[in-house]
């Protein structure tokens, strides 16, 4: 292929390359493993790559006779991929996986569609990395920094979906919905639907199974985790542009403001951070967000750029 691109392939090499392309009609069908939702997502990704390749070729400075030959090769490849999506196999395309990185800025919430049709909603100041296609791999794997809500689809061959936040901690699922936060203050997993296996220590093969409505959190060593029952929606409300507090300390709220919105918090006295908040505030307007937190906790919050200063409200 590289020699053909450079115009250095012989007639015999071009014939061999064409025969190699055409041989894919007889390869096994790898698409049977994909679900009905994942196949259309893969189809769109494949055609986007084909279209991009054709556009690049049309503007390149290849010799006229080479352009005719190579354009013919691209048409052959496109035809084969059409057959692939109909059930012939996608091994060649799937072998060209690249690492994808998706990031959000502070305060940004964005939804990302994964190669299998699963959805990830990223909270502010978060990042995921994954291969551009998972192909015939037995594991769908994604790396997370920050916070994200996962809506994982189930595949026909029961392939695992893994979320990794550190070398010694990951989650395995089949089809479920859950929130994962991997911040400076620690790691938190909240399960909304389905079942999740927490891999606490890969070296020791230490695991635990979570049920819907449970939260597992830890700081540092995953084996030193805390497990409790919670209202799962409280921990994913940010994707609907609001924060829900339930007897939440102002210190915990301050950590959210720092991690997600890049604020630096200064408290007049440490005791102010022990005050607790119950209620909800919108996040699509920072001024209203800060004002709502101040009202709910009985303090005053002064904003100077990215610095927030908390003082006690003066009582008359």
Describe this structure in words.
This protein has about 325 residues and is an alpha+beta fold. Strands 1, 2, 3, 4, 5, 6, 7, 8, 9, 10, 11, 12 and 13 form a 13-stranded mixed beta sheet that branches. A 3-stranded mixed beta sheet has the order 15-18-17, with helices on one face. It has a two-stranded antiparallel ribbon with strand order 14-16. It has helices at about 1-5, 10-20, 40-60, 65-90, 90-95, 250-260, 285-295; strands at about 100-105, 110-115, 120, 125-130, 140-150, 160-165, 170-175, 175-185, 185-195, 195-200, 205-210, 215-220, 225-230, 240-250, 265, 275-280, 300-305, 305-310. The longest helix is centred in the N-terminal third of the chain and has 25 residues, at about 65-90. The chain has 3 domains: about 1-95; about 100-230, Sandwich (Jelly Rolls); about 240-310, Phage tail protein beta-alpha-beta fold, CATH 3.55.50.30. It is about 30% helix and about 35% strand.
Index terms:
316 residues; Jelly Rolls; Phage tail protein beta-alpha-beta fold
Number of DSSP strand runs: 18
Structural Rg: 25 Å
Give the overall pLDDT as a whole number.
80
Structural class based on helices, strands and sheet pairing: alpha+beta
Our count of helices gives 7
Amino- and carboxy-terminal Cα gap: 81 Å
Number of domains: 3
Low-confidence stretches: 1-5, 24-30, 82-94
Tell me, what is the CATH class of the largest domain? Mainly Beta
User: What is the strand content?
Assistant: 25-35%
- Annotated CATH topology of the largest domain: Jelly Rolls
Q: What is the makeup of the main sheet?
A: 13 strands, mixed
């Amino acid at each position: 292929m590289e020699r053909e691109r450079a115009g250095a392939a012989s007639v015999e090499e071009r014939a061999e390359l064409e025969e190699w392309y055409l041989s894919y009609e007889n390869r096994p069908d790898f698409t049977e493993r994909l679900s009905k939702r994942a196949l259309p997502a893969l189809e769109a990704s494949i055609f986007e790559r084909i279209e991009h390749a054709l556009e690049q070729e049309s503007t390149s400075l290849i010799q006229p006779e080479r352009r005719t030959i190579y354009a013919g090769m691209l048409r052959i490849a496109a035809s084969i991929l059409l057959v692939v999506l109909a059930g012939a196999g996608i091994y060649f395309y799937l072998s060209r996986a690249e690492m994808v990185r998706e990031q959000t800025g502070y305060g940004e919430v964005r939804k990302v569609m994964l190669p299998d049709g699963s959805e990830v909603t990223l909270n502010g100041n978060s990042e995921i990395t994954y291969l551009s296609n998972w192909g015939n791999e037995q594991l769908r794997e994604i790396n997370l920094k920050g916070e994200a809500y996962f809506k994982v689809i189930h595949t026909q061959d029961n392939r695992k979906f893994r979320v990794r936040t550190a070398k010694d901690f990951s989650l395995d699922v089949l089809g479920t919905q859950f929130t994962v936060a991997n911040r400076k203050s620690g790691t938190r997993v909240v399960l909304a639907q389905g079942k999740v296996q927490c891999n606490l220590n890969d070296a020791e093969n230490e695991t635990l199974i979570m049920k819907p409505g449970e939260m597992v959190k830890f700081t540092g060593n995953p084996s030193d985790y805390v497990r409790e029952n919670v209202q799962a929606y409280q921990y994913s409300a940010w994707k609907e542009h609001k924060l829900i507090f339930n007897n939440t300390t102002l210190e915990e709220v301050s950590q959210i403001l720092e991690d997600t919105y890049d604020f630096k918090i200064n408290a007049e006295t440490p005791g102010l951070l022990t005050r607790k908040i119950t209620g909800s505030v919108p996040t699509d307007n920072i001024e209203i967000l800060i004002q709502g937190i101040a009202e709910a906790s009985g303090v005053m919050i002064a904003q100077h750029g990215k610095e927030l200063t908390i003082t006690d409200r003066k009582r008359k």
